[in-house]
Amino acid sequence: TPDDIVEEMMKLGKVGKDDVVYEPGPGDGRVLIASIKKGAKKAVGIEIDAKKADEAKENVKKAKLDKEIAAVLNSVPQSGVDAGVLPPAVEEQLTAMLKGAPKQKLF
Prior knowledge:
Helix content is 41%, strand content 21%. The chain is of the alpha/beta class.
């Protein structure tokens, strides 16, 4: 996702200090990184491609945000949504769904 689009996503999502941002298919991690830089308290990427997960991990490490950003290699299929700030009820549903899915914590 180009940087100008990521910036617009942060504006539209109204990312703030109390937000946890989830991103299915984070690719290179730029949305996760931008979320933290815009003030989110945590960002979580759910990736199914191990190569892309490695790329995101490296970019997060370079940005020195590995304490604020977590990524999970998971078999959960991607949705059509690139990123979003989830309401608590949706966050709880996603968490419950992921608890039962095979996964490997990456960082």
